[in-house]
Amino acid sequence: MNKEYILELLLTNKIRKTQFRIELLEVFMNTKYGLSFKDVKERISSTQDKVTIYRALTIFEKKGIIHKVPNTNDVSKYAICPEACSEKAHQHNHAHFICTQCEKTFCVDEIELPILKKVKGYKIKRSNLTLEGDCPDCI
Amino acid sequence: MNKEYILELLLTNKIRKTQFRIELLEVFMNTKYGLSFKDVKERISSTQDKVTIYRALTIFEKKGIIHKVPNTNDVSKYAICPEACSEKAHQHNHAHFICTQCEKTFCVDEIELPILKKVKGYKIKRSNLTLEGDCPDCI
DNA sequence: AAATTAAACGCAACTAAGTTGCATTTAATT
DNA sequence: AATTAAATGCAACTTAGTTGCGTTTAATTT
Q1: Which CATH number goes with the domain that contains B19?
Q2: Torsion angles phi and psi, residue B83, rounded to 5
Q3: Measuring CA to CA, which residue among B69, B61, B63 is closest to residue B108?
Q4: Looking at strand D, which nucleotides approach a protein CB closer than 7 A?
Q5: Domains held by chain B: number
Q6: What's the pLDDT tens digit per position in B75-89?
Q7: Taking CB atoms and an 8 Å cutoff, what residues of chain B touch A136?
Q8: Which of A80, B64, B86, B111 could lock onto A28 through a cystine, CB 3.0 to 4.6 A?
Q9: Could you report the per-residue pLDDT of B31-45, keeping only the tens digit for each?
């Protein structure tokens, strides 16, 4: 199991190894698609307060452990970062696919985004390609 | 002025020409960047109920007159569609730039998205490229 | 021009997402 | 064992967006 990797992640990011945060990372690692706040809550065995969950999500995102994928339906999903992201270089050079039927969010590693730095006077720090449609399970 | 174009838009989409909806479209046409609900409310002279505003935004989006750009900060922006979108083919083949300083959202026509139809079993109906960073005014 | 009707509107009440302040607990350090 | 700062829990709050329902009004029909 990747429990060791989780502990390593928490250590290098100076996040305390609490039961809940370890379990939260396990949930993310064992899910192939993005999770909304509600999804996360359902998958956590300990009945944590929503504030605690939000705070963990926020710090994980800030540290580059997970990333947030916004959705036109106003319910963002969180997913674990596939490779090494850090607080400084939080680049997700892959697309996200959102199924409009089952509402699941998948990372699509097959599509590589061109890393643009500048376009017509805009300084680009991050880019995010979101695809919408039907996922393999819903076609 | 493009008042005539607005009336035409409403007519072809079978939306009644009320004072408010005409004004709302004028606001969108005269703004070069995306508007949040709050932005819209501030720019409307008549003091419309928020439900009325939301319903107009929803129907305009459904008809392909405006499109919604989600943001990681959970405040979506709405912007008028540059070309001919329709209820069926609501494709926005351009990127959106969100300034992390002033929070403005701009359509970036310079970047053309490759129109992907299928990737690894996913059926893609819509795609959305969002760029984040500093806009020309904030650099 | 009057009657009809369905879209648009306004209000109240609600849900759901996410935040803030503060007191308490606990992991990690000294 | 004592310290301390991170993490937690609770209450209360804000903000975005929705639903139901009765009323108004733009557009159509007679």
Answers
A1: 1.10.10.10
A2: -115, -155
A3: B69
A4: 6-12, 15-20, 25-27
A5: 1
A6: 888 988 665 444 444
A7: 120-122
A8: A80
A9: 878 899 999 999 998
